[in-house]
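Notes from the 1:1 (GR / supervisor)

We went over the backlog. Supervisor wanted to see one worked example end to end before approving the batch request, so GR pasted a single chain during the call. The sequence is below; no edits were made to it. Supervisor asked that the structure be written out right there so they could see what the output format looks like.
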Amino acid sequence: MGSMEEKLDNRQLLILYASQTGNAMDAAERLGREAERRGCPSVSVLSMDEFQPRDLPNKEAVIFVVSTTGQGDNPDPMKGFWRFLLQKNLTRDWLKGVNYAVFGLGDSSYQKYNFVAKKLDKRLSDLGAAPIIERGLGDDQHPSGYEGALDPWVSALWNMLYQQNHELLPKGADFVTPDAPLLDQPKIQITYHDAEEGEPPLSTTTDFKHLEMIIERARSMTPAKFSCKSRPDCFLKMIKNHPLSRVDSGKDVRHFEFEAVSCSIDYEVGDVLEVLPRQSPAAVNAFLQRCNLNPESYITVQPRDNINGFQNPSMFPVKLKSFVESTMDVASASPKRYFFEVMSFFATAEHEKERLQYFVSPEGRDDLYQYNQKERRTVLEVLEDFPSVQMPLEWLVQLVPPLKTRAFSISSSHSAHPNQVHLTVSIVSWTTPYKRKREGLCSSWLASLDPQQSVFIPAWFSKGYLPPPLPSLPLILIGPGTGCAPFHGFVEERALQSITSPTAPVIFFFGCRNEKDDFLYSDFWLSHSKNEGVLSEDKGGGFYVAFSRDQPQKVYVQHKMREQSKKVWSLLNKGAAVYVAGSANKMPSDVLSAFEEIVSKETGVPREAALRWIRTLEKAGKYHVEAWS
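Structure output shown during the call:
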């Protein structure tokens, strides 16, 4: 019996992925489709949180596809898996006989580029597993994105797999199913319902209760995995929409204030607010019309391999238009490569079919990247560019990018503003290589809201990377641009705490381009840096601003930190915690480098020793970074 099981496992290829935004899942599913077309007898593609890591030693060949999030962090589905792999009782031959390959998705503009793939590769090797092929590292900065590295890596992978185990590819490394590509079945099934079935159980519900129910129904049945639960924590109403940057400065930064309308709210400084943006009604209507969909029909969506009636309590029918509005990003996100592949099967015009097939071929990869990702072409635009394509709703629901919540650092203290939450938001807009104007879906929608209107905004609260500090903890805060947002809340809270008891010193380094254009919250910071405020020198604190463009030489926060070297070291020596927030590009590594230099200069130790000291600070939970791209 055992030998039969071993024989089956010997012919099975397991592909495990850990994805935060969906790219690693797309890459893993592509690998699974390719393996099947090449004649692999058994292929299984699973998210890491759907697999029991204790079963890993029983597998013959495992391919891992993992993304790196934040500052070198594991994606959520990998956290439990990674904890298991780190157990001390696992021996160096625990994975002996297991062959593996790792492909990572990352962004080389981040300091810890592809950190998760690198550490997973090392840990698997340390536990006795044998690499099939050298790890592959996909880079968002490559002209073709992560696929620039994935395509050649996958070609080499099939050759190496065949050399190691003929049974995985019994028809040879170069075999591809004749008449391929074959179109798979969609993963989901859609059932249409009578309108009465879709009516809400209670007709007396308030507007936001009805909205909450619709959002929960729609988002709980979609195949996409979202970062937060289906039901919103609360609904917010905007009460203030205030520009912080000077008009015509080239930047539009807003201060938004919201109050909770559906329930009381609770959060801590450093927390994150996730907002579900509203799509343009015109874009949603255009999508429905283009796809010949009846907006008034009621549907339920279920996995094709698990059609089991209404066992899910939230699986009530929902209006098709509401489903699209709440779950499918039709006019903001760009579709993935597989979307174009599936489109090619439904194109009836020969020239459209040929162009789509070219786009998904290795030769057309770069052209697809230029057409799609670089131009941020939306699903609606792509469908309009290929008018002969009529995709069934099942495929659209599976492949249209999910409508994701947008996360913002909270810039208020709940103690200072009960039942309110404030955000500091840069309104995103840019021009594509072909001079097309683009706007961020969520930020531009929020900017367009009038506080006089009663627009209910679905929102979720979550923990970020900045834990709330105790009043007795000295703080060194670095937050250029909208990175100041969480520290606005920190300072508000500490100012309140200082009324009733002594608080530790706070120094804050802020940076912007020009004093006149984008000195965000200038009055707030300056008022707290005077008259024994929490940022005042009287209290051992300080407020330092770098205006990068107000003089011939650019001056950034790290330059101001070096100017205050003695003060920074003095606070570090007293046990201060460091908090860094802002752009993920170069700023976090430049700030880390400035700390290295300061520690080295003030203590006389070499830079390497200074870096080790800072790493100790990180391990002790006293060096926090929240960065975004």
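Supervisor's comment: Confidence is low (pLDDT under 50) at residues 1-8, 307-311.
Batch request approved.
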